[in-house]
Amino acid sequence: GNSVTQMEGPVTLSEEAFLTINCTYTATGYPSLFWYVQYPGEGLQLLLKATKADDKGSNKGFEATYRKETTSFHLEKGSVQVSESAVYFCALSGKGQNFVFGPGTRLSVLP
Amino acid sequence: GAVVSQHPSRVICKSGTSVKIECRSLDFQATTMFWYRQFPKKSLMLMATSNEGSKATYEQGVEKDKFLINHASLTLSTLTVTSAHPEDSSFYICSARDRGGRVTDTQYFGPGTRLTVL
User: Fold this and answer.
1) Closest C-alpha among B19, B2, B30 to residue B78
2) What gap in Å lies between CA B114 and CA B116, rounded to an integer?
3) pLDDT of residue B28
4) Is the model more confident about A61 or about B97?
């Protein structure tokens, strides 16, 4: 079945540091890929998505590129802020299929 | 962007009582809504898929008589935790898939409901 693997957290960075959170997936067909962010005590917010190979999703300075050859969708940001401390979930969804979430990566950004 | 609301955001109840959680899509129609459960510092676990006008589809291991789901309209799904016990305490999150007249894989999530059973 489909699955998503994320790097284990927590990830602790200083403000303005470069962020990478790795995500790899296993899936049949050509799923859509997503990054969601969950701030403390809140639900999930869609951060970005990509629906086909080589697509780059981007939002609020975050980027991720759908790499079919490496089955990856790594999240990157050039300069993180304290307010972006949260849990980040990588997820995939095949057409008409349910979402499959990764375990989440907790990011802490220190001032 | 699409907005999904949940009510209540927090609920504390006594063991043995039932609790109803509402999930609404505010600016779009959702033929399908999903209910997830999230344990502390864990990922989301899909409990059931709710389709408007039909019975919900439950994931393996989820008791359908314990977690009653009703999707009565294109904008409202409810989850009722019946005879709640402390082990049912959790963060419950719903999501909705935009009907939109087109096929889309994006789900929009509600803010979650924290249930504490004493």
Assistant:
1) B19
2) 7
3) 83
4) A61
